[in-house]
Specification:
Helices cover about 55% and strands about 5% of the residues. The protein is mostly helical. Helix 1 crosses helix 3 and helix 2 packs across helix 3. The relative contact order is 0.15.
């Protein structure tokens, strides 16, 4: 799952910004610079990224992947719940799309569009074994 700024409305972008602010505050409390975080990610987690990506996340821009948030929380020695504390509240307000919905077998085109929840989808990668999905 990724929370991607380009695919969401103003409320969702505000949520991403608040998560970014929390990440920034947590990094600063640990007295780490963004390039320090990049080094730790590469050395301890074999995860390659850039200081620019960390900056983008902290400014609410770009895509925040759940595993990135989890790794950053580990580095900053905080819980992911602390970073995502407002997620349930924002979800309850309807600001975040439901990522827990699943496609049903024999779903119609209209049902699939409703599942997408108004997000612009430019491409879909489908497991070849999902032949009924390819037909939709």
């Amino acid at each position: 799952m990724a929370i991607d700024k380009e695919r969401h409305d103003k409320g969702e972008q505000d949520f991403l910004y608040s998560v970014g602010v929390k990440l920034n505050e947590s990094r600063r409390k640990k007295k780490l610079k963004q390039h320090d975080v990049v080094s730790i990610l590469e050395e301890q987690y074999q995860y390659k990224t850039s200081a620019q990506h960390i900056s983008d996340l902290e400014n609410g821009n770009g895509s925040l992947k759940l595993y990135e948030a989890a790794i950053l929380c580990s580095i900053y020695e905080i819980s992911i719940e602390e970073i995502l504390r407002d997620c349930k509240r924002e979800y309850a307000k309807g600001l975040l799309p439901s990522y827990n919905r699943q496609r049903k077998p024999n779903m119609t085109k209209d049902e699939l569009e409703k599942l997408a929840d108004g997000l612009h989808i430019s491409a879909v990668i489908v497991d070849p074994s999902a032949a009924s999905f390819i037909e939709v």
